Amino acid sequence: MSGQIENSGAKAASQLLSPQNARDLFDSVDAFLFDCDGVIWKGDKLIDGVPQTLEMLRSKGKKLVFVTNNSTKSRRQYSEKFRSLGIAVSEDEIFSSSFAAAMYLKAIDFPREKKVYVIGEEGILEELELAGFTGLGGPEDGKKTVQMKPNCLFEYDKSVGAVVVGLDTYINYYKLQYGTLCIRENPGCLFIATNRDAVGHWTDSQEWPGAGCMVAAVCGSTEKEPIVVGKPSTFMMDFLLQKFHISTSKMCMVGDRLDTDILFGQNAGCRTLLVLSGVTTISTLQDPSNHIQPDHYTSKFFKKL
Amino acid sequence: MSGQIENSGAKAASQLLSPQNARDLFDSVDAFLFDCDGVIWKGDKLIDGVPQTLEMLRSKGKKLVFVTNNSTKSRRQYSEKFRSLGIAVSEDEIFSSSFAAAMYLKAIDFPREKKVYVIGEEGILEELELAGFTGLGGPEDGKKTVQMKPNCLFEYDKSVGAVVVGLDTYINYYKLQYGTLCIRENPGCLFIATNRDAVGHWTDSQEWPGAGCMVAAVCGSTEKEPIVVGKPSTFMMDFLLQKFHISTSKMCMVGDRLDTDILFGQNAGCRTLLVLSGVTTISTLQDPSNHIQPDHYTSKFFKKL
């Protein structure tokens, strides 16, 4: 495989990252956008070489941005997680799909008097609150059960104007009924998905169902399709570009998923680097049925250049 | 609207059932196939006119069959439910999707030494056991939670060769992870759906998420499509025809759902009657976007003819 960089486009085969083309990539990029699960960490374990790579990039003046579809944490909580792992990352450098959901509602001028029902975890509720919206559901509905008795009505708030669905490891029938009733019965109620990742590395040893599982469940009961705010939707990139004035051609998206990370980068016109530390294997990448080809792929970070 | 019966086909507009065309339908049909939820009952309440209609049909020598996509009960449990509501129906007259799942495994000679993981309720497990298969999961996994700690592996049975997904009002992340791992990791593991109904009348006052919700969740996490054994799949009809030697042109499918009941009847060449006592409204039936037209529709049963 050649070591030269070519602007390979979506269909050309990916190049293995070599010391030489890594150098070329490094020189041509001003900002590196990193996915987190399967790229920076798996569960609570850092992936080998990450701290050194991030430190090297910062020391060379590269802008670092962390773009994660995992909605269980807010930006503040992600910043704490980075700190607990010995890496200093500010909230401003983090773009999580929990934040994207709140920013989407802000962008469309979602009425402040309406409420937002959450099938998801703490991160979404915290970001909604920070953006001035009233969230319902989430963790506090995690232990609720349903009463299916004659004449017993399942009560839900008629002022819910949006249902946000993300990864929810406390998913239950109560929340599914609540969200379904709001979307089906409250006129104009929005159905917003943080993302549709099938699975993710929530622990270092295994993959687990992702937000795609909960989002599909709500599609199944409502027969509606959601507005997706996380990767590969361009919403997060548009927001990011408003903040950082860097041309997307000077950005490189680094991720472990073809259908979210790499597609997100390609949709925006960024360079793309697939890391094989997460959900994508080399055989998936090279399978003829795969039509998403990153510019480069690597099984390990180069700690020095 | 004309009172005459025409073999209207899928696209011709439905006729409102009148005393006259009800008489003609009655004379030309030997067996009536009834859906249950939204047709016979809503929750634990019989729908008005049902006992008298069933009694009248039996007294005239019509064969009655009950074909339900609701997998929460076994045939034995459905027979008990009918009895508790004052209607005598034998197990042989009941075709539930729980039974269909077990019969499907029998039909394909599913190996007896393999196990079946169930995301669903008691009915599926009981039918699997009656058919000689080993079921896992179901209600006993309803209170299990997941441990997402470093190095902690989610254990699952490598001998699971099929995952059956049906309506599960105790759905949780444990079951979703269990079923997902089996389908993704156990070579050749089947993904079987009892049905894909979006919602159903599990209580008289409201609709609730149906099996389509849980099935979609597993599609979302596995990125695979299931084998469907309930309506509108023809599997249940093929099985029913083996048992009752009646031509499908002499059968009438009576149901409340266009995309399951009516489609199921039409796929098999049966006459079809939509009742408006369940999930389908007259406006849904007559909406230009609806392409499934039953031969007849009615908002109430004719207790006498």
TrEMBL record, chains A, B:
Residues annotated to bind substrate: 231
Keywords associated with the record: Acetylation, Chloroplast, Hydrolase, Magnesium, Metal-binding, Phosphoprotein, Photorespiration, Plastid, Transit peptide
Location of the protein in the cell: Plastid, Chloroplast
Pfam families: Hydrolase_6, Hydrolase_like
Catalytic machinery residues: 35 (nucleophile), 37 (proton donor)
Function as written in the Swiss-Prot or TrEMBL entry: Photorespiratory enzyme that dephosphorylates the 2-phosphoglycolate produced by the RuBisCO oxygenation reaction.
Cofactor: Mg(2+)
InterPro entries for this protein: HAD-like_sf (IPR036412), HAD-SF_hydro_IIA (IPR006357), HAD_sf (IPR023214), PGP_euk (IPR006349)
GO molecular function list: metal ion binding; phosphoglycolate phosphatase activity
Main subcellular localisation: plastid
Any GO CC annotation of this UniProt entry: chloroplast
Name used for this protein in its record: Phosphoglycolate phosphatase
E.C. numbers: 3.1.3.18
Catalysed transformations (reactions): 2-phosphoglycolate + H2O = glycolate + phosphate
Entry similarity comment: Belongs to the HAD-like hydrolase superfamily. CbbY/CbbZ/Gph/YieH family.
